[in-house]
Design brief:
Layout lengths: L1 H13 L12 E5 L4 H14 L2 E5 L13 E6 L31 E5 L1 H9 L7
Parallel strand pairs: 1-2, 1-3, 3-4
């Protein structure tokens, strides 16, 4: 898992900057701040990449992520009643990353984040 995550982060950052010029990256982890999982990710990412900003997913303001080189979004279907989205796709009204048209950061989606973001942004992959 760690190797796969490292490879995803390296691929995502290739478009963001030249790692040879600046090997330390600013990573934003958006998830359940204060949880054991968030702390494990923070420690691992800090060892590998440098500065890590942990942002609580429930109160995330996309403007707070502007300084990050790469954003990791950790979002489980088991949280916040998200699991009911299949019965009511509008039940999840807000994406922590903001509006789809305004999001341009290299992003790694963890857990069920891909499905949840697809449902909220109404893109293929959020259904059937």
């Amino acid at each position: 898992m760690r190797t796969a995550l490292s490879l995803c982060l390296l691929a995502a950052t290739a478009a963001a900057q030249d790692p040879a010029r600046n090997p330390k990256l600013h990573i934003a982890f958006v998830g359940n701040a204060g949880s054991e999982r968030a702390e494990d990710f923070r420690k691992f990412l800090a060892q590998q990449y440098g500065e890590v900003q942990v942002v609580d997913r429930k109160t995330c303001d996309p403007k707070a992520l502007q300084g990050a080189d790469v954003v990791l979004l950790d979002w489980s279907q088991q949280e916040d009643g998200v699991i009911g989205w299949m019965n009511d796709p509008k039940a999840v009204k807000r994406c922590p990353l903001g509006e789809r048209s305004a999001w341009h950061k290299p992003t790694v989606l963890l857990g069920d984040a891909g499905l949840n973001v697809a449902a909220v942004w109404d893109v293929a992959g959020g259904y059937g």
